[in-house]
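Re: your question from the hallway

Yes, I did run it. Sequences:
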Amino acid sequence: MSVGVVRVGLLGLGTVGGGVIKTIRSQQEKLSLRLGKRIEIVKALVRDSEKERAVHVEPSILTTNFEDVLKSDVDIVVEVMGGVDPTYDYVRALIEKGCHVVTANKELLAKRGTELVELANQHQVHLAYEASVAGGIPILSVLRQFLRTNDISGVRGILNGTTNFILTKMEAEQLSYQEVLKQAQELGYAEADPRSDVEGFDAMYKLYILAQLVYGESLPLADVVRKGISDLSAGHIRIASELGYRIKLIAQAYQTDEGIRLSVQPTMLPLGHPLAQIQDAFNAVQLSGNIVGDLLFTGRGAGELPTASAVVEDLAYLLTQPFTPHPVWRENTASHLAAQPEASQRSLCYLEGSCPSATPDRVLHFLRAAGVSISKLKVQFDLGGVLRAGLITSGLNEEHEALLTSDFGLSVRRFPILESAES
Amino acid sequence: MSVGVVRVGLLGLGTVGGGVIKTIRSQQEKLSLRLGKRIEIVKALVRDSEKERAVHVEPSILTTNFEDVLKSDVDIVVEVMGGVDPTYDYVRALIEKGCHVVTANKELLAKRGTELVELANQHQVHLAYEASVAGGIPILSVLRQFLRTNDISGVRGILNGTTNFILTKMEAEQLSYQEVLKQAQELGYAEADPRSDVEGFDAMYKLYILAQLVYGESLPLADVVRKGISDLSAGHIRIASELGYRIKLIAQAYQTDEGIRLSVQPTMLPLGHPLAQIQDAFNAVQLSGNIVGDLLFTGRGAGELPTASAVVEDLAYLLTQPFTPHPVWRENTASHLAAQPEASQRSLCYLEGSCPSATPDRVLHFLRAAGVSISKLKVQFDLGGVLRAGLITSGLNEEHEALLTSDFGLSVRRFPILESAES
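Structure:
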């Protein structure tokens, strides 16, 4: 590393990349004081070097050719371009040149993290990725700290700000998913192609990174249960609320008797649950340690500056720490992911239909005769004669669901319930 | 340090000390694996070596004589005896022998921390005290991390579990302070002599430790505004709730134009404020950074195991880190603490009295004529003709308070309002 200057290369100069430049500039004095070195961005790989940008950058550092970054003799690369292809190859080439890596790319880590960790260890460079999970919340460093003394029994949280914003708005303003998505896109909270957020991929990658850290295993990504929010209706949200629940897209990793289970899915939370209080674009992560108990961390999980804060913290951290090898995840050969939750768990079952045979009495009679226990019930009819019902059930299985559809003409949606720690 | 074994001495073997022994035992395997060394408690200073204890300890390691600890050739001392006298002298003697220190003692750090930090630096030993603030919440390490890249504009939180438990119970069960205190003492949540908790000393020491870290200055402890909860009545809590507020004992440190201001006092929080959701014996700390935004950390702030978790984490940390000098706080010669908040701030003013001249109309007329603006009002009369009123005011000062007492025979209590970040 050159004396007095840290040469940084940037892969990508979108929202987060702009935030990184702003943060390094506004905190330059503080950083220099602590690091004894000035951070200088010497090269930035962009798609279009002519594009207008919110942050001023010397045109001479911009390039559209990765080879220019590779030749620029950078000490550290900050990867905020996203995606796996060609990002993986770029990061790999830089590690092989002995360059430290700071990345905010959850997809890259979830899909190729094991290889990158091994490569970084082999070349004795840092691979830091705090910014990839929960933006400004320093959840990875906190987890590493707790893992020194605690057995972590579970991690759960709200890891995607876009979907949490949409769900909050749908409930508060009684709007449909499509209406709120449009607003979110106009506000810049959701992307033109929103699938990565609304179908749960983004949250899944983040959960996966957390889970590998907690369980020390390379888990099969394909086995993660993943459901998004795009099929949620105002009816689901209203019935949930009348039953005392709020729907959140909950990411969870926990140990079951059959192995580690990872899921991202719309989940019912009792209104008093701490995660039910997390609204708008906020993220939150709850850890359960055998010694420390439950801890909850809340903050902005995305956006230019919170994510940039995590990137620059990683930068500052690796500049003050000697290299220590990153723990390598054990290969998980047998699938450790448990199957679907058993039917015996409590769930909120939402029914909707207009078939005249689907009277509440007949439906309830059928379910009770089938051995399903029902602890709470809300039924609504609208002016058009459409029945909407919410039931808190245990013992309901897929067979029952099929019969409710075939014999009663009802559409059925079953949501898992996250019980309160207190209850 | 002996090869393969870390020799630990314990000062104090109360609730937290017992938790430390339990944690080291239950996590011994994990700790040995990570540290490459076994942790062994070789000596424990106690007041009474014959006393029955919840945790089994070899009688041979117990001593009532500090000299025995000093002679035991310990690598690390864990100080959980509390107090300043004789604790300071003991810790000092151990540092001078080259012994690392892990402490949970907030009073010691607040009153003699500067000296201990200098002494530890001089002897190149670690002085670790994560457990002194907010139990299992790793707030000091998180703060240190954020300070590398963020300017922290303020820290606020609920730092004392006992008082939060009492306030939660008073509201939920409409009981008086004395009734709940008695319950809390029976449950072991409050001590026989509860002053350190209920008068705000405990929260003040913790706030002070946080503030020195954030502002890098040795602040005058005597200038911290400190008010406890022992004079709060069911009437205060009821009127607050009717106006949409909840009373919490809030510890705050923030920069004002006149300097840094530290306060611990009963404060009104809008019900939607994240800190208003923190109930029972939980603690929470909110940080505001210029890059990362607002972050909130919640967890059990006290108790045997959460505090022990923080102690053992400190132990594990210092065993894996080379010594680096602790930053020395700049001497704060001029008092940087601002005076009382200006009268222009919004506050909730509680009035109580039975004087027949204190009709709501006359009181309001007087206040408006005096230029006090009133945005919200709740008035109650009980069967005995006692008036209780709550007013959201701005512009009310001590002069007005005096006149309300002398001319209207009213007792007056003014509470600051913590505005929501959103509003």
